Amino acid sequence: MYNVDIRSDSPWQIAWRRFKKHKLASYSLILLALLSFIVIMVPWILEMGFHYDSNVTRIHERFLPISWQHLLGTDDLGRDVLVRIFYGGRISLAIALISAFFSLSIGLAIGAWAGYYGGIVDTLLMRFTDAMLSLPQLPLMILLAAIDLQKVFPPALSFLARGHTASMIKLMIIVVFFGWMTVARLVRGEFLSLKEWEFVQAAKGIGVDNQKIIWRHMVPNCIAPIIVATTLSMGSIILYEAVLSFLGLGVQPPIPSWGNMLNNAQEYIRLAPLLAFFPGFFILITVVSINFIGDGLRDAFDPQFVNRK
Questions:
Q1: Kindly report the CA angle at 209 between 208 and 211, in degrees rounded to 5?
Q2: Ramachandran region of residue 79, left (φ > 0), alpha (ψ -120 to 50) or beta?
Q3: pLDDT above 90 covers what percent of the chain?
């Protein structure tokens, strides 16, 4: 009598096993999870437990070197660099997550409608997508970042343009405006293939509503490549935030972000070069980790995956 090992793993379990074989992706996921936990919890603990304000200036402690009291030293206003790195990471990662979510939502809707309905709908939506892809993104981002939101938003939404959060909202709107096209083209390609499958034809045959076919039957079957594309886009969003904040057009002080910390440090690059090194280093490891995770997810969901030794 033979012992037969029959596995009934779900596609997600199979993908997870494949992902774990990608060593760089696995280590990057651990590093990114640890970094996310730190930048979320440390500022919260400092605020709730110690009533610490990262924006309080201490002029008599300017440019202090690395020590046990200040593990990464202090900046030009005497603020602890490490604490501001954590606060800035919370802002940068939040912008990346929120912007990626809305970019995914817009791209998914446009790609799904174009791929499912085809014809004139597909032509109009894809030509608009191609036109957006052909635009020079960075110069237009800089131009849009200079727009005053209080003059654009209607009075009912004017509260969004007030205070320090206005620069964050503006930045997320700009990033979403230029971030949905890749997802749209990817989803459209998947839908062109899926709509010819038997389960879609059967659903049409029994009179299921088109929107139910799209969102209940077809979208779950193309979720894997969407996850990969969204993960990879987060790295680009963090870089866009850093670039615009470095140019003084992103998140505005006193709210810290890795980008505006770099912008502030450029004035003191000779006096205190580490002020520019540390936020740049955290941007680097975060973006590289996200890209490795995206690469691991691509291999995990790829049906042509070859087992790594």
A1: 130
A2: beta
A3: 15
Q: How far apart are CA 99 and CA 101, in angstroms?
A: 5
The burial of 91, by beta-carbon neighbours within 10 Å (0-12 exposed, 13-18 middle, 19 or more buried), is given as buried
| Interaxial angle between packed helices 137-145 and 223-246, expressed in degrees from 0 to 180 and rounded to the nearest 10 | 60
Angle subtended at Cα 242 by Cα 281 and Cα 250, rounded to the nearest 5 degrees = 150
Average pLDDT value for the chain: 81
Taking the domains of the chain in order of start, what are their residue ranges?
21-55+67-301
Question: What pLDDT was estimated at residue 50?
Answer: 60
Tokens (6 digits) for 173: 């709107």
Q: Residue 114's pLDDT band (boundaries 50, 70, 90)? A: very high
Q: How far apart are CA 89 and CA 258, in angstroms?
A: 7
Distance CA 285, CA 34 (A): 12
d(Cα 166, Cα 172) in Å, to the nearest integer?
Answer: 10
Kindly report, residue by residue over 257-268, the tens digit of the pLDDT: 888 888 888 888
Rg (CA), the chain: 23
Reported confidence tier of residue 106, pLDDT bands at 50, 70, 90: very high
CA distance 270 to 286: 26
Residue environment code for 192-211, b if the CB has 16+ CB neighbours within 10 A, otherwise e: eebbeeeebeebeeeeeeee
Show the tokens assigned to 195: 């709509």
Q: What is the 3-state secondary structure (H, E, C) of 222-257?
A: HHHHHHHHHHHHHHHHHHHHHHHHHCCCCCCCCCCC
How many angstroms separate the CA atoms of 242 and 75, rounded?
Answer: 18
Q: What is the Cα–Cα distance from 217 to 210, expressed in whole angstroms?
A: 10
CATH number belonging to domain 21-55+67-301? 1.10.3720.10
Decide if pLDDT at 155 tops 90. no
Checking if the pLDDT of 241 tops 60, the result is: yes
Q: Are 19 and 296 in contact (CB under 8 A)?
A: yes
Residues 6+ apart with CB under 8 A from 288: 28
